Fold:
Amino acid sequence: MSQAIGILGGTFDPVHHGHLRLAVEVRERLGLSEVRLLPTALTNLRDAASASPAQRLAMLEAALCPGLRADDREIRRGGRSYTIDTLIALRAEYPAASLCFVLGADAWNALPRWHRWTELLDYAHLVIATRPGAEPDEIPQLAAAQTEDPAALHASPAGRVLVLPIPRLPISSTDLRARLREGKGIDYFTPPAVVEFIAREGLYRG
Ligand code: ATP
Ligand code: MG
Structure:
C-alpha cells in the first residue's frame, strides 16, 4: 500500500492537547504518513460564544506539529457535512491510499444513526480510539470487518475496523470555553499559539 492517511474529524472549538495527542498516537501506532484534522463547517451550537469556522481553522493550523495537517474541505463546502461525503471526496483524491477514519468510542456507539453509515467501510477503515480495557459496543453488521492487527489497515485501502486503546487526556473544548467565559486561563491545555490567538481575538468571553 503506497500511502496510509489518518482522518480525525471534530469541531475543534478550540483545538486542545487531547485532540493533538490522539492524532500523534494514532499516527505512530498505525505507521501513518499523516493525520488530517478535519474541522466541521458548523460551529458549536451548545455555547453562545463560539469561534467562526475561519477562526477554528486558524487555531488548528497554529497548533500542528510535523505529521499532522489541517484539512479545510468541510469548511470550504459549508453547511452540514456528512462523513460519507467527505470520505467519498478523499477517496476520489487518493484512489489507492489506505484511509483510516478515527473516532472516539462515544462516536462509534452512535454510528448506526449516521447518514449512510453502512457504506463508510467502502471508502475507509474505521479506527476506534478507546480507553484501555473498555470495549466499545458491538455493532453486529461490522463484526466481520474487525481486526486486531494494525498491518491489516495497510494491506487494503478500506473495509476494516480496528479498536485502539489510547488513554484520553481529561481535556475538552467545552471545559476550555467555560474557563474563558469565567475569565480564567487555559495555559497548558492547548499550545501557546492557540492561547495567544484566543486572547488576541477576544474569543469565548461570552
Ligand atoms: P466539545 O467539548 O465542544 O464537544 P471536544 O473536546 O469533545 O469538544 P471535538 O472537536 O468534539 O472536541 O472532538 C473531536 C474528536 O476528538 C472526537 O473524536 C473526540 O472523541 C476526540 N477527543 C476530544 N477530546 C479528546 C481527548 N481529551 N482525548 C482524546 N480524544 C479526544
Ligand atoms: Mg465533543
Remarks:
- The chain has one domain: 4-170.
- Residues 131 and 166 are 6 Å apart (CA to CA).
- The pocket of adenosine-5'-triphosphate (ligand 1) is lined by residues 8, 10-13, 18-19, 22, 44, 103-104, 107, 168-169, 171-174 (CB under 6 Å).
